[in-house]
Specification:
With 238 residues, the protein is an alpha/beta fold. The protein is 49% helix and 11% strand. It folds into two domains: 149 residues, 2-Layer Sandwich (Potassium Channel Kv1.1, Chain A); 76 residues. The longest helix is centred in the last third of the chain and has 17 residues. 26% of the residues are buried.
Length: 238
């Protein structure tokens, strides 16, 4: 999936035509950083620290690169953040086309780490969807949770209940995010529409229908509010 190359080693570098057409990203290219990432015709230069700290995928690959680049490196040790003044400490990563990650996508991930407005993460729904996809793909657990927290903020995004469930399921949201959504769906009086059923998929439609039938038996009459949903129901739908 990836080509990971220590920039100073004798391992093959990106081909000449690729290097010739490279352009530095307008925002995320910092000469003082130690990790170069190439996507198509765009190069990023960012601190490896965040990628090592938060992603086991990047951590493993950077450790492999360090091992190959330093004869005395101990493979059992975690990679150390390199001094940017030492060109032997630079690393280059080429993300291949089959990974389906664009330069714009990667810039959105970089924004999470290098956001200059501390603790303010105001972005569009589309941006958060990209961040969810990449954080799932590369196992950035904390970034993924940040994305779900932002998406889950009341009134922040105009998402229907079904669209939200589909999105959360697609990126394997934790139970704490899914429970209230499924609870609201089970407790509403209105049945699933054909359009909603298509979006959810047959497996979920059957599961939800069975859960609604069970809920009707344990809580006859008006539907209980979400916060009174029986624990057994949570086990059924999540």
């Amino acid at each position: 999936m990836y080509s990971w190359r220590p920039a100073s080693s004798n391992m093959p570098a990106p081909n000449n035509s690729q290097l010739k057409n490279l352009k530095e990203h307008d925002v995320y290219y910092d000469n003082g950083s130690d990790l170069i990432v190439i996507l198509g015709d765009t190069s990023f230069r960012v601190p490896s620290y965040f990628f090592i700290r938060d992603s086991p995928v990047f951590r493993e690959r950077l450790a492999e690169g360090q091992k190959g680049n330093r004869n005395n490196a101990d493979a059992s040790t975690k990679p150390k953040i390199a001094d940017h003044r030492d060109r032997a400490s630079l690393y280059t990563i080429v993300i291949e086309p089959e990974e389906k990650v664009s330069a714009d996508d990667f810039a959105k991930l970089c924004w999470v780490f290098l956001n200059t407005k501390l603790s303010i993460y105001e972005e569009s729904l589309g941006t958060w969807e990209v961040i969810l996809r990449l954080s799932t793909q590369w196992q950035f657990t904390e970034v993924k949770d940040l994305a779900f927290r932002e998406l889950h903020r009341p009134g922040k995004f105009n998402l229907s209940l079904i669209d939200r469930i589909v999105l959360y399921d697609r990126y394997h949201a934790e139970q704490k995010y899914l429970e209230p959504l499924y609870g609201e769906l089970l407790c509403r009086a209105k049945s699933l529409t054909e359009e909603e059923g298509t979006a959810l998929g047959m497996k979920d439609v059957i599961r939800i229908s069975r859960a609604r039938e069970t809920l009707a038996k344990v809580a006859p009459g008006p539907m209980a509010p979400t916060d009174r949903l029986p624990t057994s129901m949570k086990d059924i739908v999540v």
